[in-house]
Amino acid sequence: MTLDLLPTGKRARITAVDWSRMASEEAKRLQALGLEEGARVAVSHRGVFGGRDPLALMIGRMSVAIRRAHAAAMQVEEL
Predict the structure, then answer these.
(1) How far apart are CA 57 and CA 76, in angstroms?
(2) Is this model's pTM higher than 0.70 or not?
(3) Domain annotation for the chain: domains and CATH numbers
(4) pLDDT of the chain, 79 residues: tens digit per residue
(5) Other C-beta atoms lying within 10 Å of the C-beta of residue 17
(6) Handedness of CA 28, 6, 43, 4 (dihedral sign)
């Protein structure tokens, strides 16, 4: 399953990221925020507009908003 499909409130671990689907600068920023293989995340909120963008994620005690397209590049497994 990809991160964009993870139900709100469920916890998961990122198992793989397709960095080639993102611009280099975006990939570096997400890695700096801790969004890489092995990170434990949870979707806390989804945007209210058509594409349900952005997604608010919890990474530890930190809350981060990312684009749904970036979340679609991340494979996760529920915990």
Answers:
(1) 13
(2) yes
(3) 3-78 (2.30.30.90)
(4) 999 999 988 999 999 999 999 999 999 999 998 899 999 999 998 887 766 778 999 998 899 999 988 999 999 999 9
(5) 21
(6) positive
